[in-house]
Amino acid sequence: MPKPGGASAVAHPNIAFIKYWGNRDHLLRLPANGSLSMNLGSLKTQTTVEFDRQLKTEQLRINDKDALPEQVKRVSAFLDIVRQMAGIEHFARVDSQNNFPSGSGIASSSSAFAALALAATRAVGLDLSEQALSRLARRGSGSASRSVPAGFVEWRAANTDEDSYGSSIAPAGHWALEDCIAIVSEEHKAIGSSQGHKLADSSPLQAARIASAEARLATCRQAILQRDFAALAQVTELDNHLMHAVMMTSRPPLLYWQAASVAVMHAVNDWRAAGTPACYTLDAGPNVHVICEAASADKVATQLSEIPGVVRILRSGLGGAVQSLD
Ligand code: PMV
């Protein structure tokens, strides 16, 4: 019987080139399609978990504030899985800190549940394999499965819990890309991705998106392995448009773009036509992730900051795997 105690871990959020949107099983978070992303090394979530038999309820602090009831509920449901694995019953004290704004299109849930999965399992004395840890992180947030391994990570779609996990297709040092995130709003989104995944099938376009996802995954994997920016740009923007087309045609519709988001998309297309290796993708929020080759990142960031409506730029290169701090 493991002795409950405390443990800390740090994880990076990731940005997907090929997006996860919609589940084949909502409870297990088994995705409708495979996805592919890169970890963002400069952005971090650091989480400490301590199981304590004296506690009468779960205690969760995020960025030095008491968490909202719905956040506590989600973390508690996740910790139930860990408690079941370890055969313990007591509650935990969880403290989580992000060095970036959460809730507006920078997938804080990816790094949050990757760090939580590692800290919580270490705190109960479990030492999981990368695969098992990725599967566990997936139960908290699908994209968190991709923040467990290092660098460029593919999360395969599968019909069972055992077979759906992320694995690295190339290490962080494989290709010097940067994500220049054009922040156009730091407000929390009205409909988060957990609810959004449930709406995906209400769009008549989701079936077509899913049917063609494997081909885009193969193109994207190849583009990354060959460091072919033109191919990566084309498939990333196509996949992004397909996901947002599904969002916009769901019932109720989800329209995450702001005027400034669209202005950035047009500008990036113009820059690429003029020879700058840059392309864009947006998650479930208005901020635009502009992926570029690192050599062009200073120029891209400066030009982005000059677009009206862009509040600030966050920048990050590739990142490694989730790490234990103990
Ligand atoms: O992991 P979730 O449930 O927050 O879903 C992530 C969904 C997107 O960020 C929009 C796409 C993706 O693949 O990261």
Q: Work out the helix count.
A: 9
Strand content: 15-25%
Helix-strand topology string: EEEEEEEEHEHHEEEHHHHHEEHEE
Number of strands: 16
Features of the shown structure:
326 residues; alpha+beta; Ribosomal Protein S5, domain 2; Alpha-Beta Plaits; 2 domains; six-stranded mixed beta sheet; four-stranded antiparallel beta sheet; 16 strands; 35% helix; globular; binds (3R)-3-hydroxy-3-methyl-5-(phosphonooxy)pentanoic acid
Written overview of the protein:
Helix content is 35%, strand content 23%. The protein is globular, with a radius of gyration of 19 Å. The two termini are 20 Å apart. The mean pLDDT is 95. α2 crosses α3 and α6 packs antiparallel against α7. It has two domains: 7-173, Ribosomal Protein S5, domain 2, CATH 3.30.230; 175-316, GHMP kinase, C-terminal domain (Alpha-Beta Plaits, 2-Layer Sandwich). β7 and β8 form a beta hairpin. The strands form four sheets. It has a six-stranded mixed sheet, with helices on one face. The longest helix is centred in the C-terminal third of the chain and has 20 residues, at 229-248. With 326 residues, the protein is α+β, with helices and mostly antiparallel strands. (3R)-3-hydroxy-3-methyl-5-(phosphonooxy)pentanoic acid binds at residues 16, 19-21, 35, 107, 109-110, 141-143, 193-194, 197, 283-284.
